[in-house]
Amino acid sequence: MTATSLDALQRLLPEGMVVTDPDVTDSYARDRTFCAPGTALGVVLARSREDVVTTLRWASEHRVPVVPRGAGTGLAGGATAVEGGVVLSLHKMTAIRELSPADEIAVVEPGVITADLDRAAREHGLMYAPDPSSYEISTIGGNLATNAGGLRCVKYGVTRDSTLGLEVVLADGRVLETGRRTVKGVTGYDLTGLFVGSEGTLGVITAATVRLRRAPLVPPATVAAEFPTLVSAAEAVAAVIAAGCQPSLLELLDRATLKAIDDWRNIGLDPDTAAMLIAQSDASDGQAAAERMAALFEEKGASFVAVSSTPEEAEELIGVRRLAYQAKERLGACLVEDVCVPRSRLPEMIAAVEATAARHEVPIFTVAHAGDGNLHPVFVFEHGLAEPPPHVWAAADEVFRAALDLGGTLTGEHGVGLLKRRWLDLETSPVARELQHGIKQVFDPLGIMNPGKAI
Amino acid sequence: MTATSLDALQRLLPEGMVVTDPDVTDSYARDRTFCAPGTALGVVLARSREDVVTTLRWASEHRVPVVPRGAGTGLAGGATAVEGGVVLSLHKMTAIRELSPADEIAVVEPGVITADLDRAAREHGLMYAPDPSSYEISTIGGNLATNAGGLRCVKYGVTRDSTLGLEVVLADGRVLETGRRTVKGVTGYDLTGLFVGSEGTLGVITAATVRLRRAPLVPPATVAAEFPTLVSAAEAVAAVIAAGCQPSLLELLDRATLKAIDDWRNIGLDPDTAAMLIAQSDASDGQAAAERMAALFEEKGASFVAVSSTPEEAEELIGVRRLAYQAKERLGACLVEDVCVPRSRLPEMIAAVEATAARHEVPIFTVAHAGDGNLHPVFVFEHGLAEPPPHVWAAADEVFRAALDLGGTLTGEHGVGLLKRRWLDLETSPVARELQHGIKQVFDPLGIMNPGKAI
Ligand SMILES: Cc1cc2nc3c(=O)[nH]c(=O)nc-3n(C[C@H](O)[C@H](O)[C@H](O)COP(=O)(O)OP(=O)(O)OC[C@H]3O[C@@H](n4cnc5c(N)ncnc54)[C@H](O)[C@@H]3O)c2cc1C
Ligand SMILES: Cc1cc2nc3c(=O)[nH]c(=O)nc-3n(C[C@H](O)[C@H](O)[C@H](O)COP(=O)(O)OP(=O)(O)OC[C@H]3O[C@@H](n4cnc5c(N)ncnc54)[C@H](O)[C@@H]3O)c2cc1C
């Protein structure tokens, strides 16, 4: 790659679409992790599929690495710029090409902000279910490429479960359509599923046909409860699932997180609380479901249980969850992790995190999508450091290994990116790795798509 | 492949596991289609993963095609024997290796009969949701390899949606583990999804980690209704979905099917009926949901509506659906098809089928999983023919093309197998085909896994 070849791309694309001003390119170099970026030679601000085709043809011809990028809210370093490559930003491709209430589907471009799609659907009594906490800032393209989860996925599943088909531009500029507009179909291998979660390493998603669902008819009913032990909270989670309460949200906050929130906002926390559970039901009989969950929480030993009876009260109860991340950011720089274990191993996993925090003297704050066994331990360290210091990595390493020992996985919803590549071999067998690289080779023989990420 | 090399396999496997008696091998040569089988040199009745490994190592060494086989209930010719190959039957691998109520998962071998897994789960208040109509006779391995659907999938999704991980023996005998025991995870490409629906062309599934769900607490409430026009029935389907009734079953029977059932069993059919809808709700407030659906059916012009108030009445209403297939089999040999269209195109699709039936003078009877837009037009022809006569294929061809024209797919849940290969190119682009063959090459470079099927 030379400046001359970038000139060629500039001539092929509309004026101003290829940006090389270092101040601008630098702002496209990182996501929300500490992964150190390489120096990109330029950023392409694509506005159409044709722009993407042009860029990838050029990149193939000149063997230039391409890093697809949505909003850069990723927590794995997937969108981190690669030395000598270009960043291909899709965030200006924001058309909702179609929204069919009859078929409950939408066809959207990758730059659409997740919450915007949800709002557009709600105008028709529908919703777009996947709701990462970042949904006001993340893009559908990034959600697809990471198979994003969220709070509602305990009931509605992850991004994959809402994806019917994709339009993808391959590394060589060819356009591929995968999947379908129907809810079912088994013609050929599931290429759609292969692209979801592939973190930009197989091609660039330029449109998606996604499934919408009926929006709940009533606002969700919420219940919050404090537990004296982790085990009692985990038993309460199991009881709620076993009773078929079908929560649309089931979150756990650990002792450290609660204390951080209480220190900041004084929520009147009982100092003996080991964990808080917050649950919602968005079913038509949601209030009854919330009452049932409250009864189960009490049965399992909750020291305090509150059920909302108005939307305002519901907002208040869920508000504590919303404070969790900010409460930690006040205390230092945050490394956000994302392990997932079988639900029954939740208390062991949280205990392992607490033991690691004590052993390495690293403050770790855990919030979990408890219904899915998906934990986000947040490792806090000194503000201003360029990256987490060694003892934080040592603690993270212990947490990853504990998750794997408990039959879990390194990443429930954030992806591997750059950040978790060094642990990949602990989870993935040599046979699986060989096959994954074989697949990569089929889609991207020159290896220009987001090299060094994910696999 | 020579008799000598088969001798080698016989020596490697336990006595009696390789069967060459033509009477027996012949009974393993076909599935439920009319696809003409090749002559297999033998059938391997595997009992363990090791038997599968041994067979595939041997097959790779001698370049012998291998046709994996479950129960042979397939409707696409996927398990049809290949000339000079071996049939590798998995139906004796029937262990449920694990069933964890706490994590709501089971680890099962491929020969487990679908309904047996469901029954095992129900002992713990759980269920295995995917329920192809064949679920008393089909195997989990076959369901996985075809991504089987069923009646409940309007609410619970297809087999893929219940699959967390797989154990697969690759063509060269290596063992691959895919996926995980957790409900979420994004480490690496989704190899699990790639195997589901791959019809035995990428490897042999020897175990699966599947997701169980809470079994409904009450028996389902059922509603049945007769409609004077297809359009009114389709509008009723749309209304039920739009109102968020969440049916756990939503089936449509067309005029021809109803007449065949009435002629046989005299169900008192109004001769002006164009279609019948049968819906169920298995929710805790299912009776209310059924009443709501009944009201919507009336609103959309149903001439007759019945709601069950007891499980016996529910059985009676759903009984009509159960008679559908037999009512046709009485009339001749059946070619069962499986197109799927966006739900809003359902009336057009049924109208197209009726027009084709008239034009080609072929009796076609359609039952549809209406909530999913998945239709099974059954083409009936003279008993005793070895395969459908040309005018039946001509009619089928028209139906396939109509489905594709309406934005649909050739197969919603049965797979492509041998049967639909000739139409594949109408749905799959050259780019997609090239990639699929590239993937096939990665997993099975010698091309011995179920050659000539699916892709
Ligand atoms: C406060 C906060 C809360 C969060 N909460 C959650 C949560 O609850 N659940 C969750 O899952 N994540 C969460 N995240 C992580 C992040 O928001 C998600 O991973 C999101 O999906 C990333 O979207 P993005 O548009 O920012 O993608 P980016 O960060 O720009 O990119 C992410 C990956 O996708 C690739 N990519 C982007 N667009 C395309 C495309 N069109 N084609 C191909 N590849 C592409 C990139 O190359 C990269 O590998 C959170 C992040 C923050 C900062
Ligand atoms: C009366 C009737 C009703 C039916 N209703 C439905 C329905 O509602 N929904 C539906 O989806 N289908 C239905 N079917 C079709 C059929 O039952 C399904 O396709 C079923 O999944 C096939 O299972 P099987 O065990 O019989 O597989 P087989 O027919 O033996 O094989 C099917 C395919 O799977 C492959 N295969 C089998 N086992 C393995 C393995 N362990 N590893 C790798 N590949 C393997 C075979 O090579 C073949 O390609 C019906 C069939 C009948 C006869």
Q: Name the average pLDDT of chain A.
A: 95
Shape of chain A: globular
- The number of distinct helices of chain A, counting runs of at least 4 residues, comes to 15
Distance between the termini of chain A: 24 Å
Structural class of chain A: alpha+beta
Strand order of the largest sheet of chain A: 15-12-14-13-17-18-16
Cα radius of gyration of chain A in angstroms = 22 Å
The most extensive interface, with participating residues per chain, is: A-B, 84 and 84 residues
At CATH level 3, the topology of the largest domain in chain A is Alpha-Beta Plaits
Indicate the multimeric state.
Answer: homodimer
Strand content of chain A is 15-25%
Number of domains of chain A: 4
What is the highest CATH level, the class of the largest domain in chain A?
A: Alpha Beta
Small molecules in complex: flavin-adenine dinucleotide
CATH architecture call of the largest domain in chain A: 2-Layer Sandwich
Pfam families (chains A, B): FAD-oxidase_C, FAD_binding_4
Keywords (chains A, B): FAD, Flavoprotein, Oxidoreductase
Domain FAD-binding PCMH-type (chains A, B): 36-215
Protein name (chains A, B): FAD-linked oxidase
Describe it.
The structure is a homodimer of 455-residue chains. Chain A is of the alpha+beta class. Chain A has 4 domains: 87 residues, Uridine Diphospho-n-acetylenolpyruvylglucosamine Reductase, domain 2 (2-Layer Sandwich); 119 residues, 2-Layer Sandwich (Uridine Diphospho-n-acetylenolpyruvylglucosamine Reductase, domain 3), CATH 3.30.465.10; 109 residues, 2-Layer Sandwich (Alpha-Beta Plaits), CATH 3.30.70.3450; 120 residues, Alpha-Beta Plaits, CATH 3.30.70.2740. Helix content of chain A is 35%, strand content 20%. Chain A contains 15 helices and 18 strands. In chain A, the strands form 4 sheets. The first copy, chain A, has a 7-stranded antiparallel β-sheet, with helices on both faces. In chain A, strands 5-6-10-8-9 form a 5-stranded antiparallel β-sheet. Chain A has a 4-stranded mixed β-sheet with strand order 1-2-4-3. In chain A, a hairpin with a 4-residue loop joins strand 5 and strand 6. In chain A, helix 8 crosses helix 10, helix 8 packs antiparallel against helix 12 and helix 9 crosses helix 11. Chain A is globular and about 70 Å long. The interface between A and B is large, with 84 and 84 residues. One flavin-adenine dinucleotide (FAD) binds next to strand 3, helix 5 and strand 10 of chain A. The site of one flavin-adenine dinucleotide has 38 residues of chain B, from strand 3, helix 5 and strand 10. Chains A, B: GO terms for molecular function: FAD binding; oxidoreductase activity. Chains A, B: Belongs to the FAD-binding oxidoreductase/transferase type 4 family.
